[in-house]
Amino acid sequence: xDAQKLxxxxxxxxxxxxxxxxxxxxxxxxxxxxxxxxxxxxxVGLTVWTLAAAGCGFSYNIWMIAVFRMFVxxxxxxxxxxxxxxxxxSAPGARKNLWLGLFYMCIxxxxxxxxxxxxxxxNHLGWRxxxxxxxxxxxxxxxxxxxxxxxxLKGFAAKDSKKPSTSIKTVALAHAEASQIKTLTPKSKxxxxxxxxxxxxxxxxxxxxxIVNVLGYITYNFGIEAYSYLGQKxxxxxxxxxxxxxxxxxxxxxxxxxxxxxxSYVLDRINATLSNTFKLLAASTLFGAAxxxxxxxxxxxxxxxxxxxxxxxxxxxxxxPVNFVCLHCVTxxxxxxxxASSTVxxxxxxxxxxxxxxxxxxxxxxxxxxxxxIITSIxxxxxxxxxxxxxxxxxxxxxxxxxxxxxxxxxxKLETKAxxxxxxx
Length: 425
What we know:
This protein is mainly α. The protein has helices spanning 2-32, 38-58, 62-90, 96-124, 127-147, 167-172, 175-182, 187-190, 193-204, 208-239, 244-269, 274-297, 301-316, 319-328, 335-365, 368-390, 403-421.
């Protein structure tokens, strides 16, 4: 009994340590996006990821793996903070959500592929080679990231946007104009990065639409994360499925891809306003939870699988739309921080504690059907929270100009005026 009590806190400590790199690095990459282009930062993150993955292969105990896994989270953080804003900038206006859906589809696909490939490699070459192979594969993308000459994200002044001044032009400028240009230095350059980060955080958390969206997202992850940990066990405990891991895992993989792409496609088709996005989030989660709830009430295993599959497709539909809200409820310069903060909050308040709490609940109830019905009921609450967003005065702020953009425009106007009035000495 004493040994069992020690397993839970130790397992929770390992899980928390593994997420530390992700949670700490996400806002750091968001802050650095003011000064560096996205793919340079992603390249740095993936370099750390590659070295950490190789380190996992060299580890000789579980704590070493956990520490290296923490640094793997650093690489993931660069993608989480910067990839979605870059896609939002690059995608055609009518296909933004579909592009986001293709990106977020890689999460269930990658997890499922990892189980298959990791298991095969582990059985034939040893578990260490699973880490070595993924580190070698990622090395190509590290080089590619540093080779891509990506533009600065929308909302931040480009580093080379300001033309260099020659000594002739400097002499020619009127004193008043020179003084005016000097005072227009962007805050992100003249102020300490930590001070700017604090102001950005204050601006972000004053956005009510962002708060409601993330509260719904936390609740959603608190419910859906349990399916990853307990879904297979519940399938085995309730329906005595012989291959519960394979069946539930396959359903999660297929339904995750269909649901993620389907939700993003539908949002593009119905006009992706924030109000419409909240309607999709609330409706898909509500009906998805209803189908899953009905599935776990079924006594027939085939009825369970059919209803559960439909429910999972609907439940996965919010994957791209919820991040669309994070990107479009704030000004462009706050998008990386919005994505990073959302990720930190859903992990700290949703993903990390859910498995431990649900495990303790099942230990007390000792009834898989009751436990899964309670878990599924959490999703109804997420649908209600997102439903509140439908009635909010939400404005798409993705095209609003940031301070950096306004300063850059004023500088260009003054420089043009100075060029026209300049006199060669």
